[in-house]
Amino acid sequence: MGLAERPLALTLGDPAGIGPDITLLAWTARMRETIPPFVLIGDALVLAERARALGLTVPINEVPEASAAPGLFQQALPVLPVVGLGAVMAGRPNEAAVPAVKQSIERAVGLVQRGAARAVVTNPISKAVLYGAGFPFPGHTEYLAALASAKGAPLHPVMMLASPTLKVVPVTIHIPLKDAPRLLTRDLVLATIEITASGLRRYFGLKRPRLAVSGLNPHAGEDGSLGREEIDIIMPAIEAARAKGLDVSGPHPADTMFHTSARSTYDAAICMYHDQALVPFKTLAFADGVNVTLGLPFVRTSPDHGTAFRLAGTGNASPRSLIEALRLASAMSEKAEERA
User: Fold this and answer.
1) Which of 9, 35, 264, 4 is nearest to 112 (CA)?
2) Who's near 202: CB < 8 A, 6+ residues apart?
3) Which CATH number does the domain housing residue 289 bear?
4) What are phi and psi of 8, to 5 degrees?
5) Same domain, 289 and 311
6) Do 150 and 35 fall into the same domain?
7) Are residues 47 and 125 in the same domain?
8) Does pTM surpass 0.85?
9) Cβ(173)–Cβ(293) below 8 Å
10) How many domains does the chain have?
11) How confident is the model at residue 340, as a pLDDT?
12) How far apart are CA 11 and CA 109, in angstroms?
């Protein structure tokens, strides 16, 4: 099946959040701009109810298989149904929806693994709601890695936030800040560097990606006077990456890495913890940022925002980040196809 015959697999996300809103708005945007065909793995009734709340006229068609979506996309929003979702109220999360949320993610992964979809694009989920229902993974990224590696060796997923302005990768992700220094190791930093470089080559067409690595401590440790992680962990990882032929600089003080002239010297910034990467990224690219998972055997993107329960059903949610996630997933899958 050719790339043009395969849609993007868009997951349900938390149905009480803005996932249904931005899905509907992204589909309606196809009349004004290029939106790659996608199939939503979710509930047609939830979409229809949210469309009424938003005052949108959107024809919604259930399809028996993903291959039907591209030919239908310009006329109707195609939906592969999930079962057991139950009643959904905008802005009111309910743990009863968790099985359907998981089913949507699992089915999306299955579609790309079988070659029936070209990439996975995930609508936002609520970690708190999932945790309350016994979800054992820190988040989407780790769950996708577990699904992708169910029949093989464990994978090391890497979260990259991407926009035309900046690309950032945190080495440690969804953990308490106090645990980040303890969990940093040379091998973890090195693996993150290598997977990022590989992803930039495969999916973004960069022959020799330039990576800038931050320090952990203020002023990158001031030669050990403000902490030794740069000397004992980060610099050895950088040296090992250089020995493998990678273009890596650092460790840099994080407070001087993100101004305009500094950003022109690298293709992606490797940061040591979540907020060190995401604060500058969301400051510079809040509206059009995309969450990308590298290190998986398929393309996965997501809007760079959460469920925004307070905006669900109000008409105030913007689909821009989802639109950019759909476009980037399409572009990345095309690059991967070229290199195959």
Assistant:
1) 9
2) 335, 336, 339
3) 3.40.718.10
4) -80, 140
5) no
6) yes
7) yes
8) yes
9) no
10) 2
11) 65
12) 10
3-state SS record for the chain: CCHHHCCEEEECCCCCCCHHHHHHHHHHHHHCCCCCCEEEEECHHHHHHHHHHHCCCCCEEECCCHHHHHHHCCCCEEEEECCCCCCCECCECCHHHHHHHHHHHHHHHHHHHCCCCCEEECCCCCHHHHHHCCCCCCCHHHHHHHHHCCCCCCCCCEEEEECCCCEEEECCCCCCHHHHHHHCCHHHHHHHHHHHHHHHHHHHCCCCCEEEEECCCHHHHCCCCCCCHHHHHHHHHHHHHHHCCCEEEEEECHHHCCCHHHHCCCCEEEECCHHHHHHHHHHHHCCCCEEEEECCCCCEEEECCCCCHHHCCCCCCCCHHHHHHHHHHHHHHHHHHHHC
Terminus-to-terminus CA distance in the chain, angstroms?
15
- 233 and 198 in a single domain? The answer is yes
Q: Which residues pair with 42 in a beta bridge?
A: 81
Check residues 318 and 1 and name the one with the higher pLDDT: 318
Instruction: Give strand pairing partners of 158.
Output: 294
Residue 219 sits at φ, ψ, to 5 deg, of: 55, 30
State whether 9 and 122 are in the same domain: yes
- Based on the domain organization, do 111 and 9 belong to the same domain? yes
- Are 268 and 168 part of one and the same domain? yes
Report pLDDT digits (tens) over 194-206: 999 999 999 999 9
- Both tokens assigned to 178: 């106090």
Do 38 and 164 belong to one domain?
no
Write down the residue that tokens 């980037």 correspond to.
Answer: 328
